[in-house]
Amino acid sequence: VIVRAPKRLALYRIEAFIKEKQSWIEQHQKRLQEQQSQKESFCLSDGQFPLFGRMLPMQMTQEKAPCWQQTVVFLPEGDEQQLKSSAEQLYRQVARQTLQSKVEHFAPKLGVQPASLRINGAKGRWGSCSGKNRLNFSWRLMLAPEHCIDYVVVHELAHRVHPDHSPAFHAYVESVLPAPGR
Questions:
Q1: Which pTM does this prediction carry?
Q2: Model confidence over 3-17: pLDDT tens digits?
């Protein structure tokens, strides 16, 4: 743990603050360790491929390019690093097809037309909409269930009309994708 404090702050106050926050610090350290452990334990060589919120069976193939046939994923044979590279290539392909189709479906319902659609590798953000009317989506969005993908697409398209997260923005999103149970 790194503590940053003003130079003139007494050491006993810093130590008291740390002691007061000790359980919070330990809780967050534990959570970060668990997240790191999950990342390190994930491997494609176990024959499972996460896509659209479910795990699909994966088969190794002699083909050079990865492909997906609704219920089975085919990746070129290789070590774990090569499998991850092939998987990212496939996620990008699936993302381009899926998101282009969903944008074409939802854009007219929202009365907008984006200038372009880009697929990136963002880890902390599934989608964004630039001031120049460009939609950006992370290929990692393909790990989420379809209803989540729909929501992110509609959310980003709605920013063309409401460039904020105001009540009007959320009402606009709900006009196309009503919240469950409504």
A1: 0.74
A2: 899 999 999 999 999
